[in-house]
Amino acid sequence: MLIEDTFSYLNHNQHKNPCFHQPVLVASRDVIADPVRRQGWIDNCWLQEQWASAITPKGFFFCEVAAAFDTVFNGPGGLPVEPGCWRRPLADFADQINRWCQRSGVCLPLPGRRDSEGRDDLTAGNAAELGRLGSPAIAAGRYVVFDPNDFRPDQPGWQPQRYLRPEP
Ligand code: SF4
């Protein structure tokens, strides 16, 4: 298979084990009104430190969530895919960071939801935009609206990167 000939390491996840994923669509801008405090969470996002950049048919992105959001929210696309694009200065990614981290909840200590539920947690702003874009999941009601008043930043032991874990 071409993909196996191209890459030396593949991390398969067929989602047959219990997975609890961070609520990606709980927008930080809908949860934390203070832009300085919000930016503090974004600047310390565990995913941008520990996970992957991404390439989609629309270009190169500093973060796989930003890449997915650009597709889902019909964004302007990423940077040109070219040798060394992953080493570009941070300033080159400012537009992606400013645009997509505001819509993301990965940087916030929020409880994960079991993937097999087939529902996403999201804030009202993201729900409205996805509805406007014709999201089938929104049309089918496969979502749970997160109330920003329920945000509890103090979550001892929060380890969202350990998404494979037994049922609580
Ligand atoms: S888009 Fe989301 S996951 Fe990616 S760096 Fe920003 S806050 Fe983190």
Widest sheet: strand ordering: 1-4
Low-confidence stretches: none
Number of helices: 8
Q: Ends: how far apart?
A: 38 Å
Description:
It is globular and about 45 Å long. It has two domains: 63 residues, no CATH class; 55 residues, no CATH class. The longest helix is centred in the first third of the chain and has 9 residues. It is built from eight helices and six strands; from the N terminus they run H-E-H-H-H-E-E-H-H-E-E-H-H-E. It is an alpha+beta fold and 168 residues long. It has a two-stranded antiparallel ribbon. Helix content is 31%, strand content 10%. A hairpin with a 2-residue loop joins strand 2 and strand 3. The structure holds iron/sulfur cluster. The site of iron/sulfur cluster has 12 residues, from helix 4 and helix 5.
Task: Describe the structure concisely.
The protein has 168 residues and is an alpha+beta fold. It has eight helices and six strands. The protein is 31% helix and 10% strand.
SSE layout and pairing:
Elements: H1 2-6, E1 20-21, H2 28-31, H3 35-43, H4 46-50, E2 54-56, E3 59-61, H5 64-72, H6 94-100, E4 113-114, E5 120-122, H7 124-132, H8 136-139, E6 143-145
Parallel strand pairs: 5-6
Antiparallel strand pairs: 1-4, 2-3
